[in-house]
Design brief:
The protein has about 475 residues and is an alpha/beta fold. The chain has helices spanning about 1-30, 65-80, 90-105, 120-125, 130-135, 145-150, 180-185, 195-210, 230-240, 255-275, 290-295, 310, 320-325, 355-365, 370-380, 405-415, 425-430, 435-445, 450-465; strands at about 55-60, 85-90, 110-115, 150-155, 160, 165-170, 170-175, 215-220, 300-305, 325-330, 340-350, 385, 415-420.
Length: about 475
C-alpha cells in the first residue's frame, strides 16, 4: 500500500511539473501569434454539380505564394482546355478529415491531394482510380522511394498498380538557431557528424548558454502523442539504430528479440534526454506547430521538422532566413554508416469515373517538370521535387542559400527509403495511433520502464495488424 501511494504521488508530481512547464512555455510563447486558417463548411456542399466541371480539393499550404501559384496552374489549364474547375483549399488536417468524410458518404471530389496517409488504405479497398496511364510513360523520372507510395496493392482486383500521382516529397530536416551558435563562437563547421558527438554538441550549447544567463533547451524533440512529428522522428531514430519493424514484404518483425531490444534502446535514448532536461518539459504536450515557434522564439537550439517549413515561413525576412536559422544534415548512424532519409510523398488521387478524362488531363499537365518545379519553388522550398530532372534546378543549387542545397544533398546523395506505411496499409494505423508518442509518454508521465513501454507498443502494433486492413 505504501509503495502504491508513493508511486501515485510520484505520478501526481510528474503531472504537476508538466503543467507548470507548459504554463512557462506558453508565457515564453505569448508573442508568437499562430493564425491557422480553417474551413468549417460542410465539404459535401463544396462539390460541383455542374456537368463537366472538375472539383479539386487541395492543401492551402503555409505560404501565400504556394496557394496563388496553384490557382494560376488551374487557371492556365482551364484556358488551354476550355474547361472549368472548382478549386477548394483546406488546411492540411482539415483536408484529410473532409476527404475521409467524403469517402464515407460516397460524395467525393474528382481530385484531392493526399499526405501519403490515405492512399495505401484506399488503393487496397479499390476506392481510387488507376492512374498508370499517367505514371508508366514517365516512371523512370522518379526514384524508387517515391514510386513505392503510388504503386499499391488492390485486394479487390488482386493486383498492384499506380493509384496516385507523385507531386512533391519531404524528409525530416534538422533546423537550428545559427545566431545562438555564433553567440558562443561556433559555426556550422563545428557541428560534429559522429552520432554521439552530434547530440552532445547541442547539450553543450544549452549548458554554455545557461552560463550566460540564457535559458535555451538544446533539443526540441516533439515528445507528445498529439504531434505526428513525434512518430516520424522516432522512426528516424529507429532507422539510425537499424531497427527494422517490417520486412520488405510488409510483415511484422516486432516479435524478434533484436527488434524489441532496438525499440527499448531508442526509448531509453530519447527519454533520458528528456529527463535530463535537454528537451523542454512542455514537449510532452506539443502539437505539430509548437517546435516551429519554440525555435523562432529561441526556446530551443535545434529541432527536427518534417518539410522545410521552419525557414521557408521566414523566407521573406532575409536576416532571419539567411543568418538566424540554419539547416544541418543528420549525423552518421551510431555504427558509422550514412543516415538513410525516410521520405513522405504528397500525391494526387482520382476518386471516380466522373470527369476521369479531364482529371487525367489536369494531372498530366500539373506534373510536367516545367510546371511542377515552379509550383514547388513557390512553396519556398518546403518540399523537394519528385522528378529527377528538377533536382538540378537553379533554385535548389543556389550556393548562397543556407537551407535548400543541404536538403538537395540529403535527398539525392544519401540513401532514402519510403516509410513502412507504403509497404502495409495497417502501418498507417500505427502512425495514426502515434504508438511511439504513447510509448514515450508512458515512460515520462506514468513512470513505467522502457522495457514495459516497448512491450506495450509491440502488443499495440500487433493488435492493429491483426484487426487492420491487411488480413
Amino acid at each position: 500500500m505504501i509503495k502504491l501511494r508513493k508511486k501515485n504521488l510520484i505520478s501526481l508530481v510528474s503531472v504537476l511539473l508538466v503543467i507548470i512547464a507548459i504554463a512557462f512555455y506558453q508565457l515564453r510563447m505569448k508573442e508568437a501569434v499562430v493564425n491557422i486558417k480553417t474551413d468549417d463548411a460542410d465539404a459535401i456542399e463544396l462539390l460541383s454539380t455542374e456537368e463537366g466541371m472538375l472539383t479539386i480539393w487541395w492543401d492551402e499550404g503555409y505560404v501565400e505564394e504556394e496557394k496563388t501559384f496553384f490557382e494560376k496552374i488551374v487557371s492556365d489549364w482551364e484556358k488551354e482546355n476550355g474547361k472549368k474547375i472548382q478549386l477548394v483549399f483546406f488546411e492540411q488536417e482539415k483536408l484529410i478529415e473532409q476527404t475521409k468524410k467524403a469517402i464515407e458518404s460516397g460524395n467525393t471530389p474528382d481530385i484531392a491531394v493526399d499526405y501519403s496517409r490515405l492512399v495505401p488504405h484506399l488503393a487496397w479497398k479499390d476506392k481510387l482510380k488507376d492512374v498508370s496511364e499517367i505514371i508508366k510513360p514517365i516512371e523512370s523520372s522518379f526514384p524508387t522511394s517515391v514510386l513505392k507510395y503510388s504503386y499499391q496493392y488492390n485486394q479487390v482486383k488482386n493486383q498492384k498498380s499506380y493509384y496516385a500521382v507523385p507531386i512533391y516529397q519531404e524528409g525530416i530536416y534538422l533546423n537550428y538557431r545559427q545566431d545562438l551558435l555564433e553567440k558562443l563562437g561556433y559555426s556550422a563547421e563545428d557541428i560534429p557528424q559522429n552520432w554521439n558527438n552530434f547530440w552532445q554538441f547541442w547539450i553543450t550549447v544549452q549548458q554554455q548558454l545557461k552560463s550566460q544567463q540564457e535559458e535555451v533547451f538544446g533539443l526540441g524533440f516533439s515528445t507528445s502523442p498529439y504531434a505526428t512529428d513525434t512518430f516520424l522522428f522516432f522512426e528516424y531514430i529507429l532507422e539510425a539504430y537499424n531497427v527494422k519493424i517490417l520486412n520488405e514484404a510488409g510483415e511484422l518483425l516486432v516479435e524478434s528479440a533484436e527488434t524489441r531490444q532496438g525499440i527499448i534502446n531508442v526509448l531509453k535514448w530519447w527519454t533520458e534526454l528528456y529527463k535530463n532536461n535537454y528537451i523542454p518539459p512542455a514537449a510532452v504536450a506539443w502539437e505539430n506547430i509548437d517546435n516551429n515557434y519554440s525555435l523562432y522564439n529561441r526556446i530551443i537550439a535545434l529541432t527536427p521538422n518534417p518539410s522545410l517549413s521552419i525557414p521557408a515561413a521566414r523566407a521573406q525576412e532575409s536576416d532571419v532566413y539567411l543568418h538566424q536559422l540554419g539547416t544541418v544534415e543528420f549525423p552518421r548512424k551510431p555504427n558509422g554508416e550514412p543516415m538513410s532519409y525516410l521520405t513522405v510523398v504528397r500525391q494526387a488521387v482520382v476518386f471516380s469515373d466522373r470527369n476521369f478524362e479531364d482529371a487525367k488531363s489536369f494531372l498530366s499537365y500539373l506534373i510536367q517538370p516545367v510546371i511542377l518545379i515552379n509550383y514547388i519553388n513557390a512553396t519556398g522550398g518546403r518540399f523537394f521535387p519528385v522528378n529527377k530532372s528538377n533536382w538540378d534546378d537553379p533554385f535548389w543549387t543556389n550556393p548562397e542559400d543556407p537551407h535548400l542545397g543541404k536538403v538537395r544533398k540529403m535527398l539525392t546523395q544519401s540513401p532514402t527509403r519510403a516509410h513502412y506505411f507504403s509497404d502495409n496499409p495497417s502501418y498507417m494505423e500505427v502512425f495514426q495511433a502515434n504508438v511511439w508518442g504513447q510509448a514515450l509518454n508512458r515512460i515520462i508521465l506514468d513512470g513505467i520502464s522502457p522495457e514495459e513501454s516497448a512491450d506495450e507498443a509491440i502488443a499495440q502494433i500487433k493488435q492493429i495488424f491483426e484487426n487492420g486492413t491487411r488480413k
